[in-house]
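Raw record, unedited: CBD9-like protein
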Amino acid sequence: MGLFNSLSQAVCLLSFATSLAGAQKAEGSAFTDATSQISFWNTKVASTGGYEFGIALPPDGSAKNDEYIGRLVGVIGAKGGWSGISHKGPMTNSLLLLAWADGDKVTTSFRWATEYSLPDPYGGNATLTEISHKVNATHFELVYQCQGCWNWEQDAETTASQDPATVDSLALGYAQGKQSPAPVTDVNGRISFHDNGFGIYTVDVANARQEGYEGFLGGSSSSPNSPSSGSSNSSSSSGSSGSSGSSGSSGSSQPQLVC
Ligand code: HEM
């Protein structure tokens, strides 16, 4: 039994609003991934099949304020599917990140949208470095380092940001589509609409900060996983994992849903 099973049992729905002003503070809890030993502030969304996003930020005062470690869990249905986040909440003028399973790999793609239609490939300098991934018949999990992910530049005229150092609460968005991008192997493949849910929520920055952040990245011997080499704008993993399920520990309580 593992995380993936608990995902499919999710029955409560976060009450998301579609405007930032109405964004709900997400219920979440501390969660430590058993494989990577990375600790996150983890939020679940009760889409059909499930969605989870965990975030770990560097400690307060760190010079690394343009990055985080993320953990994204998405459902795989009959037509595959994708799961994504907006790094500022709304779909538009915010760095979008999608991930989907391609066989036993997890593929990622940074995108940018200026309107509510098919997002473009992102033109700025975000870098995703995979730390670990898992794929089974029903879900995928990706743990990654995201650098250059809070300050964005799509082109010279189009910039935006959300700086964790200057806000108490991060606004984030989630979106999930039931169909994999096509072709599934293409990081810039055509995205289908998010027909399995979308919305905005907030996370307290203080909850997401992790004193052990550097160690999670291999900066200390306590981390079993060293990040693979990253690539700008998008990255595709080719790991060997095909293991089913994921395990994790959240201490005495599992991540809580808002009912
Ligand atoms: C074909 C691609 C896409 C289309 C046509 C599309 C279209 C839309 C539309 C029409 C809405 C407003 C829905 C409403 O308020 O009822 C919306 C909202 C949203 N979308 Fe997308 N979307 C696409 C891809 C994405 C992707 C890839 C992401 C993130 C990775 C995303 C994230 C969001 C989020 C977070 C919202 C809710 C917040 C907001 O209203 O801005 N979308 N989208």
